[in-house]
Write a structure and sequence with these properties.
The complex is a heterotrimer of chains A (282), B (317) and C (201). By secondary structure, chain B is mainly alpha-helical. Chain B contains eleven helices and two strands. Chain B has a two-stranded antiparallel sheet with strand order 1-2. In chain B, β1 and β2 form a beta hairpin. Chain C is an alpha+beta fold and 201 residues long. The chains are: A mainly alpha (282), B mainly alpha (317), C alpha+beta (201).
Chain lengths: 282, 317, 201
């Protein structure tokens, strides 16, 4: 083989590597741009009053996002309360009955639910809750978000529990410990860090969801803590204010976007901490 | 029953009373145990019921539209709620164009990231930085992408359009595709990464030992091996792109006409539903929107099942 | 039949189509230490696991014939009851990783939801650890996690955990096979000691 060919091949390889690195780094450009915009526009808006005041009519300065902030927290919390127990139980079933027919079908169902566009979830929950109860409500929004959380929780719980050696289950059962106590007091605590970070991840994923809330929680310009009434939430507010024609509302939406982003980032950081902090040495 | 338990046979009376008490506990626990097993089964079944209930709800909701419009719904070229004409073709087209365009734009990026993290820099601060960046891209809510797109990307695209001969809307199919492509990158990249990592070391070593260099190994070993896996990754990202709502609806222009080119405003199925659902008057109008939801549901379900089964077959190889 | 504690008659076990245990008939007298020996794969473990019905955790396992504990047919009892009376120590040490040494010893009670007083707990932990010849080594570190112990200590902890439940029978499935020679001999000594103390196995 002559040196020119080798040199040519080497150059091609280096070139390819540079292209790969270039493209990889290029996709951080939009990210940095988005972060820059939100931070630079958002920090101007955010102060204590912004967090604790209600929105003002157009033209009056000093409005806040208290209703959206509280609404988001309530809607997401209720969704978590609905989804987490069901998701963990489903995950336990799947990890314990790997090869059963039912496990196959419910795993497939979880995959399908995970892929359902969020707006379709909104439509369906509208017909399940909003229409029979004759009114938009925060509860229906929570249900829609809970449905979106469910498959994430199920799959993460399943994967976490499958990694726990069978011998701990055997040890507990051999002591005459009933099955439910074995699972809930030995196996689930052993996988706590994984399950916890899965739950946090699921919450982080749905905290910014807007589409399923459009026809369920609907939004509300006033303060409301009753989950049977329409409720404002941060993503909904950002959407409504962003497409409005008023400059002042756009600025408020940047502020709200920054708060939402901070919230979601905190959840993501917590997820990482949960993975490290509560890990049980197997 | 004999109660001579290991340990203190010298205190039989106390032991016996305790054993009796324990017996009652055990009966209670046995009941709870079978209740727990049933609860687990119910949790597993509820997932299946959820999917079926989604399907049934959407079917029932679309019946008026089926009856009034039939199959014409899918290829009708006009969407005019005022005159009760509902043809979903513009939205089907808009959805397909935005999604495929977004995928095509994102593929070089996601493949690069997969190779970067899976082959060139699997460890170290450089790869951690990129990994965190990708996770951040996935974490940003779609409404924020839409918001940013509306106020930053749309003016940029408008500037570009002014220099060419097309009408400078700013909003439109291209803008939506650009935003979508950024949003899809993390999914496609993480899928690709898993697949690149699965390439057996033996194959790579064999190629290296024959004198191949990095690029040739990637082209002749990793790509052919990962072909079907990458296909699945693309399918699953397509599923995400098809259903994406908020970011698209804010920058696509929401026009019910068939887009003339990729710079023109258009609309997607998800975006139409989000925009018009709450104000849909008339049962056929509402039902037509639900039927769009049904189409989305079926398409994403099929894409997901197909993608996951390809990956499953791939990982068993 | 007062002296026989376990009596198996014509006992068979299968995993799928694999006939693992073939018509075992054996009487195990009370207060004795019995060893089951044989080449690997001959079904020792399976037979032991069938005695406290642990084989039911394996998919496709099935049995035929009878095993009696005193006069009661094991396969007519609920597995929880069987396992409360027949304890087991496994091949590989498996202390619960989410519990302390103290918690591991009383795990059987804690996990079963039995309420026992603080002093009873302390007594039980000390007593069981003494019997398992582990007390002197861990008395100052009772609150540490069980997984910090060495392999041999972990296995003795598992024995302490099993005898804390005061079972009628204790099954030991090659408890030393995963351990080094020194730990092995200490566990063998321990079993002989145990036999002297409690005169039952």
């Amino acid at each position: 083989m002559n040196a020119v060919v080798i040199q040519y091949r080497k150059t091609k390889s280096t070139l390819f590597k540079s292209v790969v690195i270039f493209f990889s780094l290029l996709c951080t450009v939009p990210l940095l741009c988005i972060l820059y915009y939100i931070v630079s526009k958002g920090t101007k808006e955010i102060n204590w009053h912004f967090l604790i005041r209600l929105p003002m009519p157009v033209g009056e300065a000093g409005g806040g996002i208290a209703n959206a902030l509280s609404g988001s927290v309530i809607i997401v919390l209720v969704a978590a309360v609905i989804a987490i127990p069901l998701g963990i139980l489903g995950g336990i079933y799947l990890s314990e009955n790997k090869d059963k027919k039912l496990a196959y079908w419910s795993r497939l169902s979880a995959d399908i639910v995970q892929g359902i566009p969020s707006v379709v979830t909104g439509i369906v929950v509208y017909f399940w809750i909003v229409k029979p109860m004759e009114g938009f409500s925060a509860l229906s929004g929570s249900l829609a978000l809970a449905i979106m959380m469910l498959p994430i929780l199920v799959r993460i719980t399943e994967e976490t529990l499958l990694r726990i050696p069978n011998s701990f289950k055997e040890a507990a059962l051999a002591l005459g410990v009933p099955y439910h106590r074995t699972m809930l007091k030995v196996i689930v605590p052993c996988g706590l860090s994984g399950i916890l970070s899965g739950a946090l991840l699921a919450v982080a994923r749905i905290a910014g969801e807007t589409a399923p809330l459009l026809f369920t929680a609907f939004g509300n310009p006033y303060m409301n803590v009753n989950i049977f009434k329409p409720m404002q939430s941060l993503p909904l507010m950002i959407y409504n204010y962003a497409i409005s024609p008023y400059n002042q509302w756009h600025n408020m939406a940047w502020g709200a976007a920054m708060i939402l982003l901070i919230w979601i980032l905190l959840l993501n950081i917590l997820t990482k901490l949960a993975t490290k902090r509560w890990r049980v040495q197997l | 029953m004999d109660n001579t338990l290991i340990g203190q046979p010298e205190k039989p009376l106390l032991k016996r009373r305790k054993a009796k008490h324990a017996m009652k506990d055990v009966v209670y626990e046995i009941k709870k145990e079978s209740r727990f097993r049933k609860t687990l089964i119910i949790a597993a079944i509820s997932l299946i019921i959820l999917v079926m209930a989604f399907f049934i709800t959407l079917i029932i909701g679309s019946i008026p539209s089926f009856k009034a419009l039939g199959i014409r719904f899918l290829y009708g070229k006009t969407w005019d709620p005022v005159n009760n004409i509902f043809g979903a073709y513009p939205f089907l087209l808009g959805t397909l164009i935005t999604s495929f365009l977004a995928l095509i734009i994102s593929i070089p990026f996601s493949v690069s990231i997969a190779l970067f993290l899976g082959e060139y820099y699997p460890k170290g601060w450089f790869s951690n930085l990129l990994k965190n960046a990708i996770e951040l891209i996935a974490a940003i809510p779609s409404v924020i992408y839409g918001f940013w797109g509306l106020f930053v990307l749309v003016p940029i695209v408008r500037q570009m359009e002014m220099k060419t001969a097309v009408l400078p809307y700013g909003v439109g199919i291209l803008t939506a595709s650009l935003i979508l492509s950024v949003m899809v990158i993390p999914y496609a990249a993480s899928m690709g990464l898993e697949i690149v990592k699965m390439t057996p070391l033996k194959l790579k070593e064999a190629a290296y030992s024959l004198g191949a260099i990095r690029y040739e190994v990637i082209r002749t070993v990793i790509f052919p091996y990962a072909k079907s896996g990458l296909l699945a990754g693309i399918l699953l990202s397509l599923g995400r792109a098809l259903g994406e709502t908020m970011a698209v609806t804010m920058v696509i222009g929401n026009s019910s006409r068939i887009p003339k080119n990729i710079f023109a405003p258009g609309n997607t199925m998800a975006s139409v539903v989000a925009n018009e659902f709450t104000e849909a008057a008339g049962s056929v109008y509402l039902s037509a929107l639900i039927e769009l939801g049904l189409v989305l549901f079926l398409v994403t379900a099929i894409i997901n099942i197909a993608g996951k089964s390809i990956i499953k077959r791939f990982s068993k190889m | 039949m007062e002296s026989t504690i376990i009596k198996s008659e014509n006992f068979n076990a299968w995993f799928g189509d694999n006939h693992v245990v073939k018509s075992v008939t054996v009487d195990i007298p009370k207060n004795s230490l019995i060893a089951v020996m044989g080449p690997s794969g001959c079904g020792k473990t399976t037979f032991l696991r069938c005695i406290n019905r642990m084989h039911e955790l394996t998919l496709g396992a099935r049995t035929e014939g009878s095993v009696r504990l005193y006069a009661d047919e094991i396969y007519d009892m609920h597995p929880i009851l069987v396992r409360l009376k027949i304890g087991m120590v496994f091949q590989h040490p498996n202390p619960f990783p989410n519990m302390s040494i103290y918690g591991n010893v009383i795990a059987g009670y804690k996990l079963n939801g039995r309420k026992i007083s603080r002093s009873e707990k302390d007594d039980m932990v000390e007593d069981s650890l003494r019997k398992a010849a582990l007390w002197m080594e861990v008395r100052s570190t009772l609150r540490r996690k069980g997984s910090f112990l060495s392999g041999g200590q972990q296995q003795r902890l598992c024995i302490a955990r099993a005898i804390a439940m005061k079972p009628d029978v204790l099954l030991l499935d090659e408890p030393t096979s995963a351990l080094d020679p020194i730990s092995t001999s200490s566990i063998e000594d321990l079993l002989i000691e145990l036999k002297k103390i409690i005169r039952s196995s």
